[in-house]
UniProtKB/TrEMBL annotation:
It comes from Paenibacillus riograndensis SBR5. GO terms for molecular function: 3'-5' DNA helicase activity; ATP binding; DNA binding. This is ComF operon protein 1. Residues 526-679 form the Helicase C-terminal domain. InterPro entries: DEAD/DEAH_box_helicase_dom (IPR011545), Helicase_ATP-bd (IPR014001), Helicase_C-like (IPR001650), P-loop_NTPase (IPR027417). Keywords: ATP-binding, DNA-binding, Nucleotide-binding. It comes from the Bacteria.
Length: 679
């Protein structure tokens, strides 16, 4: 899109502004606007129109590049033209290279000193826009506004309310308004412009130069800020920048404000008239983020301060927590209540909840959510996977029946619900900006969140300045483990499951690689013996393999050896995966051959776990711990069997066993294990 850009002088100081509707700006700066709350009464000394229709990205760059030290008090029209030429010389050169029609003369041909019109002249324009389809508008907002005949100021008030905490492209704004404020559909730009002048909405170009990116507090970031605040904190891999060259030097700075990725795509654009309009390919699935695309963001507010943390005893009684769970919840509550600098410039504070598989991490978060909601704040629980969102939604709804719960995932019907409590996949966080007082990231180390700087960037910016992050994981990344051990990251460990029994420690059986067994048409005797033991005790058997291609051939051999057993195989490519998992849970299937798609989030009572090719490079330490964590999760069968089968005993296997033993040792030392287990 194109937008107007102008300079305005106030008490001898100049500012540059971008406008979606210059009629609103003229009225605002005339100082004779309607004498109503929210309208400016301060008269501008001078207003210089730089362009009435400039590509939005260029207009924003003119605004962001302006420095108050360059007062321009004595500037004439020619000086403003020189400023525009200097700031946008790279863009003009890029357009020339792409065969575009923009040149210096076209850039500043409209520069002129503007005479501010008076309120009476603008009022007619304002009313025509605000009252278009007035009867339909009044009916649409009756529930929100009490049937008042709204003027532009009231329309801006409603728009700020529905956009609170949001970061939306123009099509998303229109979709939200069509659902929440249908009377404003097609007529919202004047209201948005007034809200921007009031400082309650922020108008951005979705893709821009790196210096235009802003920190959580709104201040400019240095050039290296494009390497992502959150990713740097976790030492995540950075996105590779293009090699510097004559053709790429200018483009390397273009980044998506929504997801932080480099804008690698360029195309001719009818919306702004550029021959090479940059766009982001990383978040394309959520709508095209372009250099000329309007990104509307609400202004941020400081995070709420929770009251002093409650005692573990109170948490245990209120939420039915075990002693270990209550202790971790108490530590996290104390963290939330710590006095800290909660200003517009402060980054979110972080806390790691390191809990073993099956510890009941979700229940531990309930006291934290309650504390933030009781203080009037907004809370978010984010997880990388949709199936986990669908599993957690009814549990959160039961725990907090009085709160509005928004459940967000691809295709969700709740996408515009303004919930005080939000449950979402991590991709949905790209549509939020400084919205939540508490952000809980579940399964921090899971795909696709793990090692994805885009999702880490989105999570960082979804939290309010001075807000709090809680990371949940049974297998946190090594960097976070190191920070926790060194005391640099506040954390709490939950080393035992809710039933008070130790984690099953994996045993190792040396067998040939699965591929060789499949080629020979015979399974190793040690594998068959381990399976017989599990079948004899009527366990549900997870049999993990490293490759999808092995599943069907392995099943064929297993059915020859155990003809009476019900068994199936599944993977990410299996359309019947959900049905097979349900049958496995209900014990209609006794053995399930699977890949790591079931290493998390699946609880099946009375389970045993066998991992073939446990020395595979596809199984790292965290993956092995998660797979092992499928066993022994129920109180009725807390000592399930875990077996690593491989020709080699690798570092990952040793690390997984050591991690499990360490947690058991901590649980025993802290007195969390049942008396029978401690003997």
């Amino acid at each position: 899109m194109q937008a107007a850009v102008y300079a305005v002088e106030l008490s001898g100081e100049w500012e540059i502004r971008v406008s979606l509707d210059m009629d609103v700006d003229r009225l605002w700066w005339s100082g004779t606007g309607e004498k109503r709350e929210g309208w400016n009464t301060r008269t501008a000394d001078k207003l210089v129109i730089l362009s009435s229709a400039l590509p939005l990205g260029w207009a924003v760059k003119l605004r962001e590049s302006w420095s108050s030290t360059r007062a321009g008090r004595q500037w004439q029209v020619e000086d403003w033209r020189k400023y525009m030429t200097e700031v946008l010389k790279g863009e003009i050169a890029g357009e020339r290279d792409a065969g575009g029609s923009w040149c210096e003369e076209r850039l500043y041909q409209e520069v002129s000193v503007c005479t501010l019109v008076n309120a009476a002249e603008v009022t007619a324009v304002q009313h025509r826009k605000a009252y278009m389809e007035a009867e339909k508008y009044r009916l649409a907002i009756d529930a929100v506004a009490g049937g008042r005949n709204l003027d532009l100021g009231a329309a801006a008030e409603l728009m700020v309310k529905v956009l609170e905490g949001r970061s939306l492209l123009e099509p998303e704004v229109e979709a939200l308004l069509a659902e929440r404020l249908p009377g404003l559909a097609g007529q919202w730009r004047a209201a948005a412009q007034l809200a921007q002048l009031q400082g309650r909405l922020r108008l951005e170009a979705a893709v821009g130069k790196t210096p235009a990116l802003r920190s959580a507090g709104g201040g400019r970031l240095p050039a290296l800020a494009g390497r992502f605040l959150h990713a740097a904190a976790l030492r995540l891999p950075q996105l590779r920048l293009p090699r510097r060259g004559a053709a790429t030097a200018r483009r390397a700075e273009q980044r998506c404000l929504r997801c932080g990725s480099a804008a690698t795509g360029r195309t001719a654009c009818a919306a702004c008239g550029l021959a090479g309009c940059a766009y982001c390919e990383a978040c394309l699935a959520l709508g095209r983020s372009r250099a000329c695309a309007l990104l509307l963001r609400s202004a941020s507010s400081p995070a709420v301060q929770c009251t002093a943390g409650g005692s573990p005893t109170v948490a245990a009684r209120r939420w039915g927590l075990s002693a270990a769970q209550a202790g971790a919840a108490g530590a996290a509550l104390g963290f939330l209540a710590e006095p800290r600098q909660r200003s517009a410039a402060s980054s979110p504070e972080r806390f790691l909840l390191w809990a073993v598989t099956g510890a009941g991490k979700t229940e531990i978060t309930f006291p934290l959510l309650e504390a933030v909601l009781a203080a009037g704040g907004r809370a978010l629980v984010a997880t990388p996977r949709r199936d986990v969102v669908l599993e957690l939604a009814p549990r959160l709804a039961r725990a907090f029946p009085a709160e509005t719960l928004a459940v967000l995932y691809g295709g969700s019907a709740d996408r515009w619900i303004p919930g005080q409590l939000t449950l979402a996949t991590t991709h949905q966080l790209l549509r939020f900006h400084q919205s939540f007082d508490l952000v809980i990231i579940d399964e921090l180390d899971a795909y696709p969140y793990h090692n994805d700087p885009m999702l880490a960037f989105a999570a960082e910016h979804a939290c309010k300045p001075g807000g709090s992050f809680i990371y949940l994981s049974a297998t946190p990344p090594e960097e976070l483990q190191r920070l926790a051990r060194s005391g640099k990251l506040p954390h709490a460990r939950v080393p035992v499951r809710f039933h008070g029994h130790p984690l099953p420690v994996p045993q190792h059986l040396e067998v040939p690689p699965l591929q060789i067994s499949l080629q020979r048409g015979a399974l190793p005797a040690k594998l068959l013996q381990a399976l017989r033991k599990s079948f004899a005790r009527e366990a549900q058997i997870f049999l993990f393999v490293s490759r999808i291609a092995h599943i069907e051939r392995l099943l064929a051999l297993l059915r020859q050896s155990f003809s009476g057993a019900a068994m199936e195989g599944t993977s990410s490519q299996d359309p019947a995966r959900t049905e097979k998992v349900a049958a496995f849970r209900s014990r209609s299937i006794s053995l399930l051959v699977t890949t790591t798609i079931l290493e998390r989030g699946v609880t099946v009572p009375r389970s045993d776990v066998l991992i073939l090719d446990a020395d595979s490079s596809l199984f790292d330490e965290a993956s092995l711990v998660q797979m092992a964590g499928r066993a022994g999760r129920s109180k009725e069968d807390p000592a399930g069997t875990v077996v690593f089968l491989s020709p080699q005993w690798t570092k990952s296997q040793r690390g997984a066993v050591a991690q499990i033993r360490t947690m058991n040792t901590i649980a025993r030392r802290q007195g969390y294990l049942d008396k029978e287990e401690r003997r």
